Amino acid sequence: MADATRSLTDLFGMLGPRRVADGGSVADSAAPISDAAYPSKALHKFLTGLQSTANPVLLDLGPVVGSNVTFFGEQLGCRIRVEDIASDIDRHVKAGTIDGLAGFFAARFTQAPGTVDGILCWDVLDYLDRPAAQALATSLCRLLRPEGCLLGFFSTADSKDQVYTKYVVVDESTLRYRTYPALRPRQRSLLNGDVIKLFKELRVTDSFLMKSKLREMLFRKPAPR
Questions:
Q1: Alpha carbon 174 to its chain's center
Q2: pLDDT tens digits for range 159-174
Q3: Please, which pLDDT band fits residue 131 given cuts at 50, 70 and 90?
Q4: Please, what's the b/e burial string for 29-62 (b: 16 or more CB within 10 A of its CB; e: otherwise)?
Q5: CA 84 – CA 20 distance, rounded (Å)
Q6: Which residues contact 113 (CB under 8 A, 6 or more apart)?
Q7: Three-class DSSP category at 59
Q8: Under a CB-based contact definition with an 8 Å cutoff, are residues 86 and 186 in contact?
Q9: Which residues are within 8 A (CB) of 46 and not within 5 positions of it... i.e. 6 or more apart?
Q10: With 60 as the cut, is the pLDDT of residue 206 above it?
Q11: Other CB atoms closer than 10 Å to residue 22's CB: what's the count?
Q12: From CA 214, how far away is CA 117, in angstroms rounded?
């Protein structure tokens, strides 16, 4: 377990200094609106897909959740980098620059291509218009190494509630959905074909329609031929 311990110590060291969210972020200051546990089918497969990789590098696009860092560190012995995309969205809403999100995400990650083994995308793409979603998806595909995995959640129900969801791992088959205020609602439900087009460089290995009104999708980046 020495490697796992060292990996957690290197929490943000592998991919450079962590971006710090604005001190006045709604997501950081507000209490959760709801907190409910739901089964997950794709999380276990995501973990299985990474367990053969020694000390994988994991990119989490949600807010920092200490228990998640511990869970993935213990399960995978990974180095994990947290990049809170919801904070990016809120910051652009506050600044009135939401139309600039596509350009922002195109240059958001400066790491070398193929340096990330697994990406926890969660449901962040639901909050973006098509150009911004495509720019973010393209950047993530670039970061992912061949045979790397990406886990994404996509709402199957339209909602204008202005909340984000923090996904807290209970175990490999259970997630707690902890909602908190957002400055922007979900934009529209992405159809299965829309999602596949966003990640056209990846292949879908699993897709599950959950009773929680989410579609869990697992992607893998094909190895070069």
A1: 17
A2: 889 999 999 999 999 9
A3: very high
A4: eeeeeeeeeeebebbebbbebbeebeebbbbbbb
A5: 9
A6: 142, 143
A7: strand
A8: no
A9: 118, 120, 149, 151, 218
A10: yes
A11: 12
A12: 24
- pLDDT band of residue 33 (cuts 50, 70, 90) is low
What distance in Å separates the CA atoms of residue 185 and residue 43, rounded to the nearest whole number? Answer: 25
CATH of 2-17+41-158+189-220, one of 3.30.1360.120, 1.10.10.10, 1.10.10.350, 3.40.50.150: 3.40.50.150
Average of per-residue pLDDT values in the chain? 87
d(CA 175, CA 166): 10
Rounded CA separation 30/179 (Å): 10
Q: For residue range 78-122, list pLDDT tens digits in order.
A: 999 999 999 999 999 999 999 999 999 999 998 899 999 999 999
Tokens describing residue 218: 């697992």
Query: What is the length of the chain?
Result: 225
pTM value is 0.85
Comparing CA positions, the residue from 29, 80, 36, 83 lying closest to residue 57 is 80
Token digits for 75? 């399960």
Residue 4 has a pLDDT of 41
Q: Which of 20, 47, 212 is nearest to 120 (CA)?
A: 47
